[in-house]
Design goal:
- The model has no long low-confidence stretch (mean pLDDT about 95).
- The protein is mainly beta.
- Helix content is about 0%, strand content about 50%.
- A hairpin with a 6-residue loop joins strand 4 and strand 5.
- The chain contains no helices and eleven strands.
- The radius of gyration is 13 Å and the shape is globular.
- The strands form two sheets. Strands 2, 4, 5, 6, 9, 10 and 11 form a seven-stranded mixed β-sheet that branches.
Length: about 110
């Protein structure tokens, strides 16, 4: 099983980034997927979740209206579109499959002027 994140980087406040997580080694379409983040000195927190099937979504309050999680089952990929980024969004973003607790290696997002 592999989860490989990409798309992180340095962006100015108010900017946008799209993170991708390519999955392999399991039947991706059958499982919910999550994005977590970990800011320096803080615990890892759940950012967003998307279910299998209809793709129902959930978001943590600080990102509601700014972030969008989506998935492409044909490409075995889950995305996190992040708009109106703020400095407090800075951290390492991780892709996660919660049923078997698979994790990616993380991608750094830095929001700074």
């Amino acid at each position: 099983v592999q989860l490989v994140e990409s798309g992180g980087g340095l962006v100015q406040p108010g900017g946008s980034l799209r993170l991708s997580c390519a999955a392999s080694g399991f039947t991706f379409r059958n499982y919910a997927m999550r994005w977590y983040r970990q800011a320096p000195g803080k615990q890892r927190e759940l950012v967003a979740q998307i279910s299998s099937g209809r793709g129902s979504t959930l978001y943590t309050d600080p990102v509601k209206g700014r972030f969008t999680i989506s998935r492409d089952n044909a490409k075995n990929t889950v995305y996190l579109q992040m708009n109106s980024l703020k400095p407090e969004d800075t951290g390492v973003y991780y892709c996660n499959e919660p049923m078997f607790n698979y994790w990616g290696q993380g991608t750094q997002v830095t929001v700074s002027s």
